[in-house]
Amino acid sequence: MAEGAPETAPETEAGTVDPRIVRTRRDVVDATTALLRAEGWGGVTHAEVARRAGYSKATVYAHWPTRLDLIEASVGQICSTSQHPEPTGDLRADLIAELTGLAEALTEGQLARIFGGILERAGSDPGVDEVRRQLVAEGSGPMAAILAAHLPPDAVDAALALLNGGVLFRIGFQALPADRAFITDLVDRVLATTAHDATP
């Protein structure tokens, strides 16, 4: 267990969370994220997370009773710290920038491992489906907003699926790089199918 960090700590009198709990949660989620990136879902165990974070297993179990709890917290951290380019108002340029960021995250292995775990366990546990919804909402939200600013509502979902799906298939299934040339071509092809719907 980390020095000076008890396994449980009460809230302060003012109602704020004890700093020791904040530190414990941060350390454990950081350790989980590192494991998830390096080894995928199978590598995330309470014992290994506790060892890496420097806390007892009892502490980890107290805050995250299941492995899925740990993974959900990690995905939340990854989503909340992900950087998305600031939209410029240029639909084509903004989509290329967003997809370039997605391709980089997939190539680095972080998202690829998370998606792999979700696909393997989809439909087996409501918690897994919740992680999937969280990842889609947080990860695709900015791109959906970009599309919504230029396309009618009924065209957004299809364009979003084509764009994200193209990059996911390229990297995750074809094992090929989604470089700028590929992403630019993909964006141009998708926009060509929606050109008559786009708003200036």
From TrEMBL:
For this UniProt record, give its keywords in alphabetical order, as a comma-separated list: DNA-binding, Transcription, Transcription regulation
Task: Write down the superkingdom of origin.
Answer: Bacteria
Q: Which InterPro entries match?
A: Homeodomain-like_sf, HTH-type_TetR-like_transc_reg, HTH_TetR, Tet_transcr_reg_TetR-rel_C_sf, TetR_C
Q: Which residues bind DNA?
A: 45-64
Q: Where is the composition biased (Low complexity)?
A: 1-16
Q: Does the keyword DNA-binding apply?
A: yes
Q: Which PROSITE patterns match?
A: HTH_TETR_2 (PS50977)
One matching Pfam family is TetR_N
Q: Where is the signal peptide?
A: none
| Renumbered residue ranges of the record's region Disordered | 1-20
The HTH tetR-type domain is annotated at 22-82
The name under which this protein is listed is TetR/AcrR family transcriptional regulator
Organism of origin is Myceligenerans pegani
